[in-house]
Design brief:
The complex is a heterodimer of chains A (about 280) and B (about 300). With about 280 residues, chain A is mainly alpha-helical. In chain A, about 75% of the residues lie in helices and about 0% in strands. Chain A contains 12 helices and no strands. Chain B has 2 domains: about 1-85 and about 145-220, Rossmann fold (3-Layer(aba) Sandwich), CATH 3.40.50; about 225-290, Alpha-Beta Plaits. Chain B is built from 11 helices and 14 strands. In chain B, helix 8 crosses helix 11. Classes of the chains: A mainly alpha (about 280), B alpha/beta (about 300). The interface of A and B includes residues 95 and 274 of A. Chain B: It comes from Alicyclobacillus cellulosilyticus.
């Protein structure tokens, strides 16, 4: 994986543009401003008095904001990765090299996740500020950061796979944002809706259980669970991981087909499938 | 080295390539000529493992292009007709990226990269960004990219397309140099003249079928001594036909709108006699001029089925 040539090339290209430092500086500045504002609002006039509950609140808001921002930023970096190669007419040459379709997809996922991961890393000192005032325990912080990293990679993977399937960057961007919209908004509304039904209607017995299932597909909910801000099964993240990994596996087949149909010719029902010109 | 057996490709109802049988010997240069849409690019992309044949087989260096695609990729260098380059990479980084794709050790890759850049006259552009190079330089860089892993077979799809006259001449020089490397080269163009200097054999593709294959010498020999004359005028068709049929120097006639295109093998005096005959027959000739001869069209029209067809 580390020897993936695409990964090296993409790192080099991405860090040479003006976009990367602008995004990093802009993001860090906004998050710093938000953190200082929240800290000031929560501890104003009482800087010498420890208020762990309030500091935990800062940590909670900060991490949720961060998750929301990276969830919506990731498709911007990943959704045009394969379709962009296709549109720039560099994909055909890449496909005549021995690099495998999986190697291309993995290289694109990691390279488009890398900048987002860097964004997380540069905000770590802000979390340490929260520690000054107590509240968040290190295990919680580690769990939240690890989950954020995982979510970035999952969203990047889904976006890259859409980018291969959709052929055009416009469509792949729409599909990638639709997926993030589903993850954040649809699951949130449906989950809370089911919860509401469960609380107010005694006949809807299963609504409560389904509410948790649906909500556990929401990255913001999982963060809240990891921070113990809501009452739910602490292992909800497993369902999240399994579900979205399965989504990636389902999309992987068509994505590989669009890159290199021959790679799937071991599947008997694909041998005679009509192949168009995808490069 | 390159063999195809009844190779065909269909896109829905459209047949892009039909029963193509081709054989390119090791170390030779085979030129593929045809108009746009003749099936050149589809054929080359099947050989480059980008597109799967609908039927038939193709072998490169003994490897079948569908079942042994990975082995085929290792022994070909493919240059598509229209290609893009990566922004924000220098010429050297661009070549080293492809060297990494082929798993070349770094020291070998760096040495080869510098040799090839010098070979395509881009030695002084090693650190220049690829997107800042002119189109002609990018085309030459692509040739260097094709040679990075030292493949025995090169597949070049219209390497001179989209170039200005100066870059075309430079590219022709690079292609002549390529020939001296002793590699097996399959090269396409829609201009026969471009290939006549470097190709050993020429295949003419028409409507997805290989219409004829011959050496460049044979092709030019067939075409020499003939000229194409365009005659525009008004008169009854039967009169046109009678006059042209009666002239023994007329080899071929094609009626076009208000006039004809004649393949003629006579002298200038014979041409003058033909003009006089047309006028005397009552045809109002308002244009009588020699046209540039399209060698491959002329070759096809003259030979019809007489040249060896494979």
């Amino acid at each position: 994986m580390i020897r993936n040539p695409l990964l090296h090339k993409e790192f080099r290209q991405r860090m040479r543009t003006n976009r990367a430092p602008v995004v990093i500086v802009g993001y860090l500045a906004s998050m710093s401003a938000l953190t200082f504002f929240l800290l000031y609002e929560n501890v104003q006039g009482q800087l010498l008095q420890f208020q762990p509950a309030r500091s935990e609140q800062v940590f909670f808001v900060l991490s949720l904001m961060q998750m929301a921002v990276v969830a919506f930023l990731t498709p911007a970096f990943a959704a045009g990765s394969i379709s962009g190669e296709r549109e720039r007419r560099t994909l055909a040459v890449l496909l005549t090299t021995p690099i495998s379709p999986l190697g291309i997809l993995v290289g694109k996922v990691l390279s488009s996740s890398a900048l987002l991961i860097l964004l997380l890393v540069v905000t770590l000192p802000l979390y340490s500020l929260v520690f000054l005032f107590g509240g968040a325990v290190p295990q919680e912080v580690v769990a939240v950061i690890a989950f954020q990293l995982f979510t970035i990679v999952i969203i990047a993977a889904i976006s890259v796979l859409w980018s291969s399937i959709a052929l055009r960057s416009g469509w792949s961007t729409v599909l990638a944002y639709a997926t993030v919209g589903w993850m954040v908004f649809v699951t949130g509304f449906v989950g809370y809706g089911l919860n509401f039904i469960a609380q107010h209607s005694p006949v809807a017995y299963f609504a409560g259980r389904w509410a948790e299932r649906v909500l556990s597909l929401n990255p913001l909910w999982i963060e809240a669970v990891l921070e113990k801000a809501v009452r739910a099964d602490p292992h909800d993240w497993v369902w999240f991981a399994v579900f979205y990994s399965a989504v990636c596996l389902v999309l992987l087949g068509p994505a590989v087909w669009r890159l290199r149909p021959q790679a799937l010719y071991w599947l008997p029902w694909l041998v005679r499938a009509e192949e168009k010109h995808y490069q | 080295m390159i063999d195809t057996h009844n190779l065909s490709k269909r896109y829905g109802r459209v047949v892009a390539v039909r029963d193509l049988n081709l054989s390119v010997r090791r170390g030779t240069v085979f030129g593929m000529v045809g108009e746009n849409g003749a099936g050149k690019t589809t054929t080359l992309s099947m050989l480059a493992t980008l597109t799967t044949p609908s039927s038939g087989k193709a072998y490169i260096n003994g490897y079948e292009v569908t079942r042994q695609a990975q082995e085929v990729r290792r022994c070909i260098g493919y240059m598509p007709d229209s290609f893009g380059v990566y922004d924000d990479l220098s010429a050297e980084e661009y070549l080293l990226f492809y060297a990494d794709c082929y798993g070349l050790p770094r020291d070998v890759a760096v040495r080869r990269c510098r040799e090839l850049l010098a070979w395509v006259n881009l030695g002084d552009k090693r650190t220049a960004y690829v997107n800042d190079l002119s189109r002609g330089m990018q085309q030459r860089l692509e040739i260097a990219r094709c040679l990075m892993h030292d493949p025995p077979v090169l597949i070049l799809d219209e390497p001179s397309s989209g170039l200005d006259p100066r870059s075309r001449i430079e590219m022709r020089g690079v292609l002549r140099q390529l020939r001296s490397l002793g590699k097996t080269i399959l090269i396409s163009s829609h201009i026969l003249y471009e290939l006549s200097e470097i190709a050993d054999e020429i295949g003419i593709l028409r409507g997805g079928e290989l219409a004829a294959v011959a050496s460049v010498g044979v092709m030019l020999q067939h075409a020499s001594g003939f000229r194409t004359i365009g005659i525009a005028g008004r008169g009854p068709l039967t009169v046109w036909e009678r006059v042209l049929r009666d002239d023994p120097q007329v080899v071929d006639v094609r009626f076009l709108g208000e006039g004809v295109e004649v393949v003629y093998r006579g002298s200038l005096d014979d041409q003058a006699r033909l003009l006089r005959a047309l006028l005397e027959a009552g045809i109002a000739v308002y244009q009588f001029s020699e046209r540039p001869t399209d060698i491959e069209q002329l070759f096809l029209r003259l030979t019809e089925r007489t040249v060896e067809e494979r």
